[in-house]
Amino acid sequence: MQITTHAQVGSGNEVASTTVAARKLLDILRALPDSGDVSLTLSNKRMTVQSGKSRFALQTLAAEEFPTVAQAEHYNAKVTLPQKTLKHLFNMVHFSMAQQDIRYYLNGLLLVVDGKNVIAVATDGHRLAFCQVATEQEFARQEVIIPRKTIIELQRLLEENDQPVDLEIANSQVKFTFGDIELISKLVEGKFPDYTRVVPKGYKNNFTIGRDALLRSLQRAAIMTSDKFKGVRCIMSPGSMKISSTNADQEEAVEEIEIDYGGDSVDIGFNVTYLLDVLNNLKGESINIALGDANSSALITVPENPDFKYVVMPMRI
Question: Rounded to the nearest 10 degrees, what angle do helices 148-157 and 83-91 cross at?
């Protein structure tokens, strides 16, 4: 990954380039008083940072020795989105990315450009998050896997505004350009699982429940789980959802929520962390949960956002 940025700074018409320890320079600038100018002087392979009566001398390396990423000669597609739209897309799925999985293609986010839709998908093999946004542009279908580290960095850099971000896709590289920033990242090679086969369809047992009420109940039930076993048991029956958890010390938590539900009785277990992750990232007042049986994945959707889907596999309790 390579990030390039530029800024209009101060005075001086000289042209110079060097390489300096980023963390040290940042720590110095943070520690200096907010008032007063900072001057940078380059002489005899040393950079002097001066502000008021504070002075620091840093070692440097020749700029030509700095390793840069070779840019792709040809980009297959270019998509322009508002920064807040791309940030929203990443925020809705990032928590489902795997961490250090031996299936390296899961340690990232699948970005799909298909017709007028831009789709983001992430999965760790136990749960899957899907979100899409529509654009006014139209493209031939392309799929790329962006590394986890790149997604986390983009979430930090992208802002909640309507300023554009240009997303350019090459065979082995992706480039994001927005504001004063250009970010280039290698792509993860590999075949991402077919997410369309994972999302269940046609479940007849479904109900809508308040997001905050469910979140609070699960947080309380999670207190009784252990670090090694995060399972909670959910029993859906007409008019009621019962959540329970136990641990090795025979301690127990039981929560009951009234729901508008008239389907089959379903007794199913989940990893509570997977449920808390999605509820903490959603903003709506309510969510819809669709169920098959105790051995089938659950589908969580948001009534006001049909472009988001979250699939979570059951857990044997």
Answer: 130
- DSSP annotation of 234 reads E
pLDDT single digits (tens) 173-213: 999 999 999 999 999 999 999 999 999 998 999 999 999 99
CB atoms within 10 A of CB 235: 14
Q: What Rg value do the Cα atoms of the chain yield, rounded?
A: 25
| pLDDT, the chain, mean | 93
> What does the alpha-carbon distance between residue 77 and residue 140 come to, in Å, rounded to a whole number?
8
Confidence of residue 68 (pLDDT cuts 50, 70, 90): very high
Show the tokens assigned to 238.
């007409």
Task: Please compute the mean of the pLDDT values over residues 281-303 and round it to a whole number.
Answer: 93
Q: How many Å apart are CA 265 and CA 314, to the nearest integer?
A: 16
Residue 170 phi/psi, 5° resolution? -115, 180
CB environment 2-22: b (16+ within 10 A), e (fewer): eeeeeeeeeeeeeeeeeebee
Question: Which of these, 317, 307, 238, 233, lies nearest to 275 by C-alpha position?
Answer: 233
Per-residue tokens: 8: 């209009």
Q: How far is CA 69 from CA 19, 65, 185, 257, in A?
A: 16, 13, 9, 54
Domains of the chain in sequence order: 2-65 (3.10.150.10), 77-197 (3.10.150.10), 203-312 (3.10.150.10)
